[in-house]
Write a structure and sequence with these properties.
The chain is mainly alpha-helical. The chain has helices spanning 3-11, 15-33, 38-41, 52-75, 86-92, 100-113. The radius of gyration is 16 Å and the shape is globular.
Length: 114
């Protein structure tokens, strides 16, 4: 199943199920890396793929970005969104040098603030 098909399938699921999935993500993400050494979290599986720490940092930053987008939708008649380039974020923000556990804690905090 390709990405578009998976997204379409997910959209057909009940709203409550999708919201429950979003609510469970922070705890599951924290649990998934609790005992994983930092060296493992910073290892890319292949040269052009992201390491786990980069994925976690991306989720952390997206949480803030989505909040900004939702705020614009609610407060602006014709919201405009800045384009994002995830690979550029990873490079510019040096995701690979971050601590994954700190990034998960920030993600959990940001998700809980909203």
């Amino acid at each position: 199943m390709d990405t578009r098909e998976r997204i379409a399938e997910w959209q057909r699921r009940p709203r409550a199920e999708r919201l429950a999935r979003l609510a469970a993500t922070p705890a599951e993400l924290a649990a998934a890396i609790t005992t994983t050494p930092a060296t493992t979290l910073a290892r890319r599986p292949v040269a052009d793929a992201w390491a786990p720490v980069e994925v976690v940092c991306h989720l952390r930053d997206l949480e803030e970005s989505f909040y900004d987008r939702l705020t614009a939708i609610l407060t602006t008649d014709e919201p405009r969104f800045a384009t994002t380039n995830p690979n550029r974020w990873a490079e510019d923000r040096q995701y690979l040098r971050h601590d994954a556990h700190d990034a998960v804690r920030a993600f959990v905090r940001r998700r809980g603030e909203r």
